[in-house]
Amino acid sequence: AFIGELTGPHSGRVRTIAVCQGERPLENFEFLLAGTPCEEVVEKGLCSFSSGVRDRFPLDHLAAQMGVESYVGIPLIDSAGATLGPMALLGRRPFELPELAERLLRIFAARAAAELERRRGERAQKEQLHFIQTLLDTLPNPVFYKDLHGRYLGCNQAFEQLTGLERKRLIGRTVLDTHDPSEAARHHREDLVLLQEKTARDYTYSLGTSEALAKYYVVRKAPFFSSEGSLGGL
After folding, report:
1. Closest of 143, 138, 139 to residue 154, by C-alpha
2. CB–CB of 50/34 below 8 Å?
3. How many CB atoms are located within 10 Å of the residue 42 CB?
4. Is the separation of the CB atoms in 234 and 221 below 8 Å?
5. Are the C-beta atoms of residues 60 and 35 closer than 8 Å to each other?
6. Which residues pair with 144 in a beta bridge?
7. Using CA atoms, how far apart are residues 81 and 87, in angstroms rounded to an integer?
8. pLDDT value of residue 187
9. For residue 97, what pLDDT is reported?
C-alpha cells in the first residue's frame, strides 16, 4: 500500500510519502504516471483491477518488478477539488474481496488527503516566510516586528548587527529583556501608544554610554493587521 503525491501539476510523476508491505514500512520512491493504473486513478477516479494488472499495463515496469497482480487505487482530493495524488493497494495475488478494499480506501482517502493538504500548506508557508526574510535581509535599515504583547517575532540582519543579538535569541523576548531599563520603558510606552492609536509614529532615541559616544536614531513604527483586519502587532 502507498500514499503518493504528484510532484507538480504537469510533471507526470508521483513521489510516495508513505509505503508499507503488511505492517512493515518501506523506502519511498518516485515513478512516472504514464502507462500505470495510477494514471487512470488520477484521470478518472477510483479504479479496481482484481487481477491481470501486468497484462493490462505492460509499460508499468515497477508493477512488473514487484510482481503486482491486483490493484485498487483512489485519488486524493483537496478542499478545492484538485487531485493531490493517488492512494493504492497492491497485491501479488488476485483480490478476493475487491469491494472491501474499495470501501477501505474511500474511508482512509479523505483523511490522507486532508493530511497531505496540511503538509503542503506548511511547506508553502515556510517558503513564503523564507522569501520575506530574504527580502528583509536585503534592506540596509534595521527592521523588526513584534506581536501585541511586545514580543519580537523577527528581525533582519541589519537589526542583528545594530543590537548584537542573534535573531534566534531575540524571538520571543521583549525590550525589557534586551534594552537598558530606562530605554526599554520608553520603547514600551511608545509601543502602547501606537497600538492604541493604530497609526504610524516616528521618534528618536540614542544609544551610548555618554553624550560624546551616543548615536541617535529615528525610529518609525507602524501597526500591521491580520487578513481579517484585526490588529496583529507592530
Report:
1. 143
2. no
3. 22
4. yes
5. yes
6. 155
7. 16
8. 87
9. 84
What integer pLDDT is reported at residue 210 of this predicted model? Answer: 59
Closest residue by Cα to residue 16 from 91, 69, 81, 73: 73
- CA 84, 86, 92: angle at the middle one, nearest 5? 165
Instruction: Give pLDDT tens digits for 119-156.
Output: 989 999 999 999 999 999 999 999 999 999 999 999 99
Q: Is the pTM of this model over 0.90?
A: no
* Cβ–Cβ < 8 Å for 47, 73: yes
Contact yes or no for 62/72 (Cβ under 8 A): no
Reduced to 3 states (helix: H, G, I; strand: E, B; else coil), residue 178 is helix
Say yes or no to pLDDT of 62 above 80. yes
Placement of cell 493490462 in the chain? 56
**Amino acid, res. 204:** T
pLDDT in tens, 156-187: 999 999 888 899 999 999 988 888 787 888 88
Type of residue numbered 14? V
Residue with C-alpha cell 481579517? 228
